[in-house]
Write a structure and sequence with these properties.
By secondary structure, the chain is of the alpha/beta class. The protein has helices at residues 9-22, 39-49, 64-78, 97-103, 126-143, 159-166, 176-187, 211-229; strands at 2-5, 28-32, 53-57, 82-85, 109-113, 120-122, 155-158, 192-196, 198-200, 241-242. The strands form three sheets. A five-stranded mixed β-sheet has the order 4-7-5-8-10, sandwiched between helices. Helix 7 (176-187) runs parallel beside helix 8 (211-229). The structure holds guanosine-5'-diphosphate-alpha-D-mannose. Keywords: Glycosyltransferase, Transferase. Belongs to the glycosyltransferase 2 family.
Length: 244
């Protein structure tokens, strides 16, 4: 279980406790970018109390993509068969993780999805809902991928499937990283499934989303779409499936 953190001091303790209670078999790596609010010290205390909790300290905020790439390397080197991504802010429910993990029985990648039947968002501002739904729709149309929630950050990968996807690095830095990996999985012909989740807006701390993150996603998806139109990028459409 990889949990990237930037200024999540008020959230990290609770989310780690919930993960450990819901899935005691899951080890946790907190990928901490030297948060000014002292998240690192809280994370270190959690690791001292529980041998299954680890912390990777990085020198500064380098974006979600770089944080996850460092986390993937750690998971591969530790020999984990499954890699899970989850936000630290409580928007992803650890209690729903067993369903996501179960979906890996028939898939290489299981995406927690807000936008399939049974999925939902709670307390998300209208502009975030529109951005997320609009972004997913744009990516689906431009890239021709059959995934409803391409930006979601609650997902599980088989390590053997993930490793080749990121072997040459991933340039996407912000939340576009999530779209990038979905696309890479489909281009590689992997089986991608969507599992309905309930996404609950954080009650403590702040989202790190900003205009640069949105613009990066629009620019990259548009560029990939053009490459696809020119025949250079063709998802081998293993149909994205839904599981319950
Ligand atoms: N280490 C590190 N962590 C980061 C950075 N930027 C964000 N994070 C961490 O990444 C998680 C998601 O960031 P949020 O800022 O809370 O995201 P959001 O706007 O609420 O959520 C949306 O984007 C996420 C990114 O994939 C999605 O996961 C989520 O489902 C949603 O669509 C949080 O745990 C946050 O602390 C960074 O530069 N470095």
């Amino acid at each position: 279980m990889l949990i990237p953190t930037y200024n999540e001091r008020e959230n990290i303790g609770q989310i780690v406790a919930r993960v450990r209670a819901a899935t005691p078999e899951c080890a946790v790596l907190i990928i901490e970018d030297n948060s000014p609010d002292g998240t690192g010290a809280v994370a270190d205390a959690l690791a001292r109390d529980d041998a299954a909790v680890h912390v990777l300290h990085r020198p500064g905020k380098q974006g979600l993509g770089a944080a996850y790439l460092a986390g993937f390397d750690w998971a591969f080197s530790e020999g984990y068969d499954v890699v899970v991504e989850m936000d630290a802010d409580g928007s992803h429910q650890p209690e729903q993780l067993p369903r996501i993990l179960a979906a890996l029985a028939d898939a290489d990648v299981a995406l927690g999805s807000r936008w399939v039947p049974g999925g939902s968002v709670v307390n998300w501002p209208v502009h975030r809902t529109l951005l997320s739904r609009g972004g997913s729709l744009y990516a689906r149309l431009v890239l021709g991928i059959p995934v409803r929630d391409v930006t979601g950050g609650y997902r599980a990968y088989r390590s053997s499937a993930l490793r080749p996807l990121v072997a040459d690095g991933v340039a996407s830095q912000g939340y576009c990283f999530q779209i990038d990996l979905v696309q890479r999985a489909l281009v590689a012909g992997l089986t991608v499934t969507e599992v309905p989740i309930t996404f609950v807006e954080r009650t403590r701390g702040e989202s790190k989303m900003n205009r640069v993150i949105v613009l990066e996603a629009v620019a990259r998806v548009t560029r990939w779409g053009l490459a696809r139109a020119l025949g250079r990028l063709r998802p081998r459409q293993s149909p994205a499936r839904r599981s319950g």
